[in-house]
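Incident log, support desk, overnight shift.

02:14 A customer reports that sequence design results differ from what the structure should imply. Their input is reproduced verbatim below. On-call engineer (initials T.W.) acknowledged and began investigating.
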């Protein structure tokens, strides 16, 4: 027998579940049934604009979809205080207009995770236990349709170095979101935040975070048309991706390096970079990537 819960009752059950009173699987099922929609349950919404139901999200259970117009996709994930989360929202378009908004169990926006999607992982240590909602939507209703993939890469009990990793991640997000402020001051601030993030990732022994930070610096240098600096940063990222055996990311770095080398007139070096990427993609069985390189 399952009684209907008011919002207050629902939060009470969330607290009991976090304490182990309700098995985690049953709790997630109840949460997704009872969870209010991210749009606030507005009445009189046209059927064509009604938000879809909350989708389940978890390690090994990625979500993906295509957004158009006013569509929004909402995912629910049960998190507990004392856990560490690494999350990624991937999009095909480098100049994506997809936005992520995260709501905590109290329906308040989690500012450090919310905003235009970033081309790297997001780290988070939930301050309270309960259901977190991840809403994916276009920034504007007249933006072109886009596809996305949202994936939980890590969800585990936190360790001592994770606080440092989260601080580094937040600094990297701030650096990346300064990209729209094309001024010398913003570029300097973004570079400083990225360098600080690299130092923190290094202290935490997080090579992946370090590699992603180098790629943010490379992107900023590319936007500033400093192609040599963009190449230098990618060289460092490439070495880290290789050490992590993430050959797909290494190949992507090589593709970007070829682009920047070509802009500098280094045709042979650009070709060498593409050939190196091609070998990696063939070894991975990445036919689409291989075709793009060719």
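02:41 Re-run completed on a clean worker. Output:
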């Amino acid at each position: 027998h399952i009684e209907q819960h008011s919002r207050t009752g629902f939060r009470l059950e969330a607290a009991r579940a976090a304490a182990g009173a309700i098995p985690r699987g049953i709790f997630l099922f109840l949460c997704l049934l009872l969870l209010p929609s991210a749009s606030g349950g507005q009445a009189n919404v046209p059927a064509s604009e009604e938000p879809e139901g909350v989708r389940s999200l978890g390690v090994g259970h990625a979500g993906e979809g295509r957004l158009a117009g006013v569509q929004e996709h909402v995912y629910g994930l049960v998190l507990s205080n004392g856990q560490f989360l690494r999350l990624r929202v991937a999009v095909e378009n480098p100049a994506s207009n997809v936005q992520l908004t995260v709501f905590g169990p109290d329906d308040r926006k989690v500012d450090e995770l919310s905003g235009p999607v970033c081309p790297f992982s997001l780290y988070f240590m939930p301050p309270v236990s309960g259901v977190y909602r991840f809403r994916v939507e276009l920034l504007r209703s007249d933006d072109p349709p886009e596809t996305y993939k949202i994936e939980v890469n890590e969800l585990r009990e936190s360790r001592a170095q994770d606080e440092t990793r989260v601080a580094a991640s937040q600094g990297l997000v701030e650096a990346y979101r300064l990209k729209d402020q094309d001024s010398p001051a913003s570029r300097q601030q973004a570079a400083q935040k990225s360098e600080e993030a690299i130092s923190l990732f290094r202290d935490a022994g997080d090579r992946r975070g370090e590699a992603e930070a180098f790629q943010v610096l490379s992107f900023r240098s590319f936007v500033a048309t400093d192609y040599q600096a963009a190449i230098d940063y990618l060289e460092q990222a490439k070495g880290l991706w290789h050490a992590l055996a993430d050959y797909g990311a290494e190949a992507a770095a090589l593709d970007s390096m070829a682009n920047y080398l070509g802009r500098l007139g280094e045709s042979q070096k650009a070709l060498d970079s593409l050939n190196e990427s091609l070998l990696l993609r063939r070894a991975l069985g990445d036919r689409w990537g291989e075709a793009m390189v060719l």
